[in-house]
């Protein structure tokens, strides 16, 4: 008999968000993770190439947030983020968690 895995019931997820390049976007995207006690394992944000945000024309920003959580929590995070005002579109990709890949 093997000991129960700490990763039992968890999946790897990647949340991809396309949004207006708002200065507070990163804070807004990460707040739901803190509320649900989920620690992102990787975060990548690509903003305007020149790094300048014009408040009259916000431009485009893309965020990819990788994390491990039960599917119910991942879908709750996705639904909270998808309705945020600066978010143009978002999608959640989930894969099985592999102990060998961990």
What are the SSEs and their pairings?
Layout: E1 11-20, H1 25-35, E2 42-46, E3 60-69, H2 71-82, E4 87-96
Antiparallel strand pairs: 1-3, 1-4, 2-3
Strand order of the largest sheet: 2-3-1-4
Mind summarizing the main beta sheet? 4 strands, antiparallel
Separation of the first and last Cα atoms: 22 Å
Mean pLDDT: 84
Q: Work out the helicity level.
A: 10-25%
| Low-confidence regions | 1-6
List keywords for this structure.
102 residues; alpha+beta
Task: Describe it.
By secondary structure, this protein is α+β, with helices and mostly antiparallel strands. Helix content is 23%, strand content 34%. It contains 2 helices and 4 strands, in the order E-H-E-E-H-E. It has helices at 25-35, 71-82, and strands spanning 11-20, 42-46, 60-69, 87-96. A 4-stranded antiparallel β-sheet has the order 2-3-1-4, with helices on one face. The radius of gyration is 16 Å and the shape is elongated. The two termini are 22 Å apart.
Summarize the structure.
With 102 residues, the protein is an alpha+beta fold.
């Amino acid at each position: 008999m093997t000991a129960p895995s700490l990763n039992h019931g968890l999946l790897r997820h990647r949340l991809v968000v396309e949004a207006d390049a708002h200065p507070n976007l990163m804070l807004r995207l990460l707040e739901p993770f803190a509320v649900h006690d989920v620690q992102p394992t990787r975060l990548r944000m690509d903003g305007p190439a020149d790094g300048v945000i014009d408040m009259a024309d916000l431009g485009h920003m893309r965020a990819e947030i990788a994390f491990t959580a039960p599917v119910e929590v991942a879908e709750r995070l996705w639904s909270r983020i998808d309705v945020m005002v600066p978010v143009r579109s978002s999608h959640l990709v989930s894969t099985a968690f592999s102990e060998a890949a961990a």
